[in-house]
């Protein structure tokens, strides 16, 4: 929980780096990418943002904001996070292979609909097979 304590200690607008683990934001982010996160209040998060949230079990996750009243986040596969959530930060960039890239805010419009579309598409067997093959490369 050291990351959570450090993140909470940041002043609003301050930035830190966190290491991503898992595939919940594939293909946007990969296991091992570093995320540049900006400390923000939960009410500053908007649909389409990628937010760092504290899940009910105490785990931190970076997921797509799909709703704000109450805060609701989801993986890119469309799996909604359990409530209640605590919003802590917004992803503003990432580092992969030594290259730092800014997180494009314009991506937010498409991201706000991505989890819902993914929930529909994963019902189709062909779509599931194609995604599984791409993801497991």
What does this structure look like?
By secondary structure, the protein is of the alpha+beta class. The chain has a single domain, classed as Umud Fragment, subunit A (Ribbon). It has four helices and seven strands. The chain has helices spanning 2-9, 107-111, 114-121, 125-135, and strands spanning 15-19, 34-39, 50-54, 60-68, 71-74, 86-96, 99-102. Strands 1, 2, 3, 4, 5, 6 and 7 form a seven-stranded antiparallel beta sheet that branches. A hairpin with a 2-residue loop joins strand 6 (86-96) and strand 7 (99-102). The termini are far apart.
- Figure out the total of helices: 4
Report the strand count.
7
Helix-and-strand structural type: alpha+beta
The CATH homologous superfamily corresponds to Umud Fragment, subunit A
User: Unreliable stretches, pLDDT < 50, 5 or more residues?
Assistant: none
CA-based gyration radius: 15 Å
Largest sheet: 7 strands, antiparallel
Total number of distinct structural domains: 1
Helix-strand topology string: HEEEEEEEHHH
What is the helix fraction of residues, given as a range?
A: 10-25%
Residue share in β-strands: 25-35%
Envelope shape: globular
The CATH class, by name, is: Mainly Beta
N-to-C CA distance: 31 Å
CATH-level-2 architecture? Ribbon
Indicate the CATH topology: Umud Fragment, subunit A
Mean pLDDT: 86
What's the SSE blueprint?
Layout: H1 2-9, E1 15-19, E2 34-39, E3 50-54, E4 60-68, E5 71-74, E6 86-96, E7 99-102, H2 107-111, H3 114-121, H4 125-135
Antiparallel strand pairs: 1-2, 2-6, 3-4, 3-6, 4-5, 6-7
